[in-house]
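Reviewers of the previous submission asked for a worked example of the structure-prediction workflow described in the proposal, so we include one complete record here. The input consisted solely of the amino acid sequence. No template or homolog information was supplied to the procedure at any stage.
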Amino acid sequence: MTVPEQGVCREDAVEWLEKPVPEAAGRLLAAGYGLLAAPLARRGVKTEAEAETFLRPHRSGLHDPFLLSGMEEATERVLAVCRDRGTVAVVGDYDVDGVSACALLTAVLRALAVEVVPIIPNRLTDGYGFRVAQVEKARRAGASLIVTVDCGTTSNEAVEEAIRQGMEVVVTDHHVAGSDFPSQAIQVNPQQVGCTYPFRHLCGAGLAFKLAQAVLRRSGREEPLAALLRVACLGTIADVVPLVGENRVIAALGLQALAKARSPGLRALMRVSRVEGGVSSTEVAFRLGPRLNAAGRLASAELALRLLLTRDRAQADRLAGELDSLNRKRQAEERQVVREATELFSADERRPGILMGWSPGWHRGVVGIAAGRLAREFHRPVILLGVEGETGAGSGRSIPGLDLHSFMTGFKERMARFGGHPQAIGLSVDVSALPALKAEMEEAADWPPEVLVRRREYELALSPEQVEPGLFHELAQLEPHGEANRRPLIRLGPLERSGPVREFGKDHVKVRVRRAGGPDSGRFVQLLGWGWRKRLAELDGRFEVLGALEWDNWVGGPVVRIEDARQIANGSKTAARAK
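From that input alone, the workflow returned the following structure tokens.
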């Protein structure tokens, strides 16, 4: 495809733009931060003190949990049940965030000798959110207090039913809060109106961690910080919340603790995921997280919860093996949905501003992941639903710059269930209402043309001579990477091949390149392309790439993982876009 002139907006355009450099970069450069000055400034760092805090996450960066609105009352309710030898029901969600939050709080309360009943809903039979069905489970278990984690802020019916049955309710959640939350219940949510907590982007596991801190402090117990953080970091990284501020501290310290975990469940999970030695945010996001998530997507998330809570190695190995098998099945189901939805959307020449599809053949447990992939591919919000009987249930994913949650709120009355974040939503809709809802959404999705222009923003423009181990280690100080702190994208070129293309796996390639027209003795750089076999063959002569710098133990040095590439010939540039 041809890259248009600057400023020309086309759906299939791919603009390569250098990320704007904030004014603070100059001050950081003068303070001696060198190559890191601009990346730090782009991540909101303005002063030398803030730079030190960012580059060296420390427990001092964890805020006082009692700064959260409702935390004092929530802690007192929990401790009152402890004193009365009562039973607490901890109701979580079926994704990594909800499961890790439930496991963390369950373990802490059990350490305080409280009777705890962890309850995780089933995605396929219970649906999303805190529901009356979980209230009934808590009642039958004899619970006098229900604490929700990663859910509940929009579950007024379930909250009111629990109160009607004589149970107290503490809701800890991070989803967009409503204005009509029942006054008899306690809510701990940094998104709620009036909460002045210094950091608004904690996930469900992060809030469970804060409640655990508060309860341990008030009870006079020591905080096992490493044990808490190694679980909290799983949800923090997997839930794709911004890895800045307090989340960065939770992730960084949690990853350090995760590498030293003695928990049979975590060790077994790392073994089947082939994670050895140090643990990175990438390994949590793409190896550990998907296996924990697979349970809730295809079977019961209780498998993942039991794995995190077990102290029996044999049981841990068995559960980890089940999760690994479920993850392979999940991958196959996801490929089917992506393939069929791609065909569906590609056949619509109108290409509306929002894409919506549903099918009884799509597994409801994987449509969210598939929607995320297709949103990136078609560069517009995508909503996919699996149909069972008269109900379509599924998820939506957005693109940068478009708040899907706010957009869909305008159609809330058409949906049986709805909730989520600006970039991700969950919903269920009566099948008979889907065609009309789709048509209305497409008509309303009249985005500004520039929103649908594909943009690749890079942070560094380098020559092959600059790609060396020192550069990798300097940029590695920005780890752990995630939302709002992505691995810096590098623009590298002009390049030419300096050897044959080596193929491995399924359409994966490695190739050695050097500066185009440079001396034969110039520095060589290894390019790594996942799924790039056909696309790399289209590039000949001079070209340039956008990619991320990674360390390859096989070559014993840095490599550039290709994310985009384009031909350079006679002053024109042709892009080969990665899926």
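The two ends are 14 Å apart (CA to CA). We consider this example representative of the routine output the project will generate in years two and three.
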